[in-house]
Design brief:
binds flavin-adenine dinucleotide; alpha+beta; 21 helices; 36% helix; six-stranded antiparallel beta sheet; disordered C terminus; 622 residues; 24 strands
Length: 622
């Protein structure tokens, strides 16, 4: 029984966003409630049993560096680890891990259940309580389907794909946010009732087959890294045995089958009207869009150590079951495979993210924060990264503290949030390294240097993490000094390491004073990148300084773009809609041109000189 129904922060949803939000808020001292349909489903991977990947792996490292959960839980439950992009520069190296899809939610739940200040409540949030505030409103709590009312000055909505979720397999439609689970029916109307504009998106998942029915002799094995690297800066040793995945592929026969049945695919029959992720297309999309390709890879990924289910990565589909059955039987190795879950697509409502601030609080409803798929993103990592920021800022809002807003030069998390709130989305947003203009600086290896001091300052980083971080930074500095001073054949070791073909392995035996530090993968890896890419990193640091100048120019909150003379109509409308915080952010708003920014700068300079009108009304905090 839940007795105390008054909290500081209520988090709606126990997915990847909700878990990080609740953990962060509670650890920052806010009495927090996590309301979710089912305790058992907390942290359940809706789709692929994997965490990380290109751009996404960096997000997980950043969540970890701030004191979040995703990296640790992945290390504790990961069953195959690989560093992607190893052949490219370290700026784009990205860790990825297969996770055990039973162990992962269980471990995540254990962390949350043992977290002080956090109460987990099973239930469905149907209504939002609010009251008039200033020119908008302020959140006051939530009402559950069974009539319970929970009150709090801050609410984080992290309800994923569940808002009016509708699943499709062929012409079969089932109400629900994910297979076997209900939809959130009332919450969309509650959000719309607060004046938030909603859109609709879709995503999809492939069929799963029974492991015992797969003919592995026909498949190519795919193992993880021989020396797997953990996600979390706190992990020394990975806990689980490492398993193999397998590789198969589609063929012209399958493509023919799909073409012949396209009219029965909800995306093509007109049954689904919303947009799905372009970069993560269904197999029917791939066959249409890449008509000249006769084959697409399929990765067979075990869903867990003791699981009999294999996830067929690469053939996400919402074709009817009879077509899926024929398609699977045509895949080499799956001729006799038994399908244990059919692929499906899900359509769901999301909130147009231009309506939120970079703190993830909605602009017009004070205290209402949004995180995860509900903001138009896709992916566990994107959700977790927003979750931790929403949790931090919800707790800080309750404590009367200013929000934490990261810069694009500080973190991938900030790149994503800035993209969302500035540009909005027209399809599910996922992270790519190419979205980050400062990616040489935003590397997976230095996420701790970029964010752990901030995590410590705001109170999320505990003593153990902080001590470990400081020790690593000391060791890294000591190693850099030694590499610059020790000489080999008349040149410093750092000079040698600048050569592209020099990996430094020969120095360990010649210089015992650095051997131990070289054996530390995190320390040695960090030093190598800093030395080998020093020139690029310096150039990027200079570019970042210029970038920061525009980011430092804060736009007064009371600015009325419609009154700025000479500003083009489109720029006025877009700036009024997005209401950027800084001139830097204004310059990234779609439809705003450099000439508009020049006019805005002139206006701001005039205001600073005092020849503009005074603010319309005083700034009101909560
Ligand atoms: C079919 C499918 C396919 C997908 N395919 C991909 C893919 O290929 N690639 C990819 O990156 N991502 C994919 N995803 C998306 C991925 O699952 C999400 O991005 C991620 O889980 C989002 O995390 P979240 O925390 O925002 O929401 P979720 O993980 O969806 O969690 C939402 C939580 O909110 C709870 N909840 C919802 N409404 C209420 C309510 N009213 N009251 C109480 N609790 C509520 C739910 O119980 C759940 O715990 C897919 C998702 C689905 C469903």
């Amino acid at each position: 029984m839940t007795r105390n129904l008054d909290f500081d922060v209520i988090v709606v949803g126990g997915g990847h966003a909700g878990a990080e939000a609740a953990w962060a808020a509670a650890r920052l001292g806010a009495t927090t409630a996590m309301v979710t349909f089912s305790r058992q489903a907390i942290g359940r991977p809706s789709c692929n049993p994997a965490v990380g990947g290109i751009g996404k792996g960096q997000l997980v490292r950043e969540v970890d560096a701030l004191g979040g959960l995703m990296g640790r839980v992945t290390d504790e439950t990961g069953i195959q680890f690989r560093m992607l992009n190893r052949r490219k520069g370290p700026a784009v190296w990205a860790p990825r891990a297969q996770i055990d899809s039973q162990l992962y939610p269980a471990r995540l739940r254990a962390y949350l259940e043992s977290c002080p200040n956090l109460t987990i409540i099973e239930g469905s949030v149907e209504e939002l309580l609010s009251e008039a505030f200033n020119r908008g409103s302020a959140i006051r709590g939530v009402v559950l389907a069974d009539g319970r009312r929970l009150t709090a000055p801050a609410v984080v909505i992290a309800c994923g794909t569940f808002l009016r979720g509708l699943m499709h397999t062929g012409d079969q439609k089932t109400v629900g946010g994910r297979v076997g689970e209900p939809a959130a029916e009332g919450l969309s109307a509650a959000l719309a009732g607060l004046g938030l504009q909603l859109g609709r998106l879709k995503t999809g998942t492939p069929p799963r087959v029974a492991r015992h029915s797969v003919d592995f002799s026909r498949l190519q094995e795919q193992w993880g890294d021989p020396e797997p690297a953990p996600f979390s800066f706190m992990t020394d040793r990975l806990a689980q045995p490492q398993v193999c995945c397998w590789l198969s592929a589609t063929n012209p026969q399958i493509h023919e089958l799909i073409r012949a049945n396209l009219h029965r695919a909800p995306m093509y029959s007109g049954q689904i009207k919303s947009r799905g992720p372009r970069y993560c297309p269904s197999i029917e999309d791939k066959v249409v869009r890449f008509a000249d390709k006769s084959s697409h890879q399929i990765f067979l990924e075990p869903e867990g150590l003791d699981s009999d289910r294999i996830y067929l990565n690469g053939i996400s589909t919402s074709l009817p079951q009879d077509v899926q059955a024929q398609m699977v039987a045509l895949v080499p190795g799956l001729e006799r495979a038994q399908v244990v879950q059919w692929g499906y697509a899900v359509e769901y409502d999301f909130v147009l993210p231009e309506q939120i601030e970079p703190s993830l609080m909605t602009r017009n409803v004070r205290g209402l924060f949004l995180a995860g798929q509900v903001n138009g993103t896709s992916g566990y990592e994107e959700a977790a990264a927003q979750g931790i920021i929403a949790g931090i800022n919800a707790a800080r809002y309750c404590a009367g503290k200013p929000p934490v807003i990261l810069g694009r030069d500080q973190a991938y998390i900030a790149v994503m949030i800035d993209d969302l709130v500035t540009r909005g989305v027209t399809e599910p947003y996922r992270m790519f390294t190419s979205r980050a203009e400062h990616r040489l600086v935003l590397r997976y290896d230095n996420a701790d240097a970029r964010l752990t001091p901030l995590g410590r300052q705001i109170g999320l980083v505990d003593d153990a993490r902080w001590e470990r971080f400081r020790a690593k930074q000391r060791d890294l500095a000591a190693l850099m000094d030694l590499l610059k001073t020790l000489k080999y054949e008349g040149r410093s070791l750092a000079d040698w390491l600048r050569r592209p073909d020099e990996d430094g392995s020969r120095f360990a035996s010649a210089f015992p004073q650095i051997a131990e530090l070289m054996a530390r993968r995190d320390v040695w890896g960090g030093a190598l990148v800093e030395i080998k890419y020093a020139g690029y990193i310096e150039r990027q640091a200079r570019a970042m300084e210029q970038f920061k100048e525009l980011e430092r120019l804060v736009i007064p909150e009371d600015i009325n773009y419609r009154q700025i003379r000479h500003l083009r109509y489109e720029a006025r409308e877009r700036l009024e809609a997005v209401r950027p915080r800084t001139v830097g952010q204004a310059s990234r708003v779609s439809g705003v041109q450099p000439s508009d920014i020049s006019i805005l700068l002139v206006e701001l300079a005039a205001r600073r000189r005092g020849d503009a009108k005074p603010p319309i009304e005083a700034q009101l905090s909560r």
